[in-house]
Amino acid sequence: RRLEGELRLGLEDQQFFLLYQPQVDLKTGSVIGAEALLRWQHPSLGIISPSEFIGIAEANGFICELGRWMLVEACRAACDWPGDMSVAVNVSPLQFVKDDLVKDVEQALLLTGLPARRLHLEITESTFLDRTDDLLKSLAQLRKMGVTIALDDFGTGYSSLAYLAGFPIDKIKIDQSFIRKMSTDAASQAIVIAVAALARGLDLKIVCEGIEGDIEWTLLRQLGCEEGQGYFFGKPQTSQELVALYRDPH
Ligand code: G
Ligand code: G
Ligand code: MN
Ligand code: NA
User: Fold this and answer.
1) What are the residue boundaries of the EAL domain, all occurrences included (predicted)?
2) Which of 38, 71, 87, 125 has most ligand 1 atoms within 8 Å of CB, for mutation?
3) Ligand 2 nearest-atom number relative to CA 50
């Protein structure tokens, strides 16, 4: 497809940018960080979502270059954020395999001056498909540096619960499909309750994605879930808008 050839040019031409979706403390609703989400402002096609080009970038290996750019860009933005706000960056499994992610992270932190504890990396269960010693070593090194590892889209993958207990991670993000349905669908609510209990048992923090209303927020708070993200608290927005939201939450 034509997009494939345009990715590299797009990066050189600064057509990629990041938006930041607020992550909140569910007890208080206050903003504690944000997830960086990639966008491509294509010269003729308009804004393209990552679901349309990440797969292409993974297939041709460009994801590593794009991933390095994102790390630096996200860390640079987070340096301007007040308090101890964290930035969560999505990482493709290929960045562990085809690239030296640990080195990329070290360089991004060094270049921008962001403290490691303010950087979170979101990985998916598919990262563990190839559970090599190298992968485990990289994750261990990142955590030793102080970087937080979150397991994204939890509940949509293939992992058995037994596997989860052995993953070297700090928190899990329950997939938004369960949260969005939990007020109307008993099965979804049961899954959220079970995952919250599981996280507590494994001493993992939990982030609830896709919170669109007050009902979900109240339920999740009652379940003791620590952190949340969703349109109710804020859509993906610019770094400046995020800082304004932190200062003046509604
Ligand atoms: O923001 P949006 O809903 O369009 O994101 C769609 C998917 O693309 C999300 O699941 C998100 O995890 C993924 N995504 C967004 N930004 C990045 C990125 O910078 N790198 C990778 N690997 N995935 C991303
Ligand atoms: O897979 P990942 O969690 O990285 O994807 C995040 C994506 O989910 C973002 O692109 C964001 O736009 C979208 N998103 C975040 N909050 C909500 C929400 O409350 N409702 C819906 N429908 N989508 C959301
Ligand atoms: Mn994510
Ligand atoms: Na997710």
Assistant:
1) 1-250
2) 38
3) 10
Does residue 54 line the site of ligand 1, with CB under 6 A? yes
Q: Is 37 in the pocket of ligand 1 (CB under 6 A)?
A: yes
Predicted TM-score of the model (pTM): 0.96
Q: How many domains does the chain have?
A: 1
List the CATH number of the domain containing 68: 3.20.20.450
The answer to whether the CB of 48 is under 6 A from ligand 1 is: no
Query: For residues 70 and 133, what is the distance between their CA atoms, to the nearest angstrom?
Result: 26
Handedness of CA 9, 12, 17, 18 (dihedral sign): positive
Ligand closest to CA 210: 2
Ligand 1, residue 95: give the atom nearest the CA: 22
From the list 215, 238, 217, 241, the residue with the least C-alpha distance to 228 is 217
Classify residue 249: in a domain, yes or no.
no
| Selection from 225, 36, 233, 189 nearest residue 121 by Cα | 36
| Ligand 1: nearest atom to the Cα of 21 | 1
Could you identify the residue written with the tokens 């960086």? 36
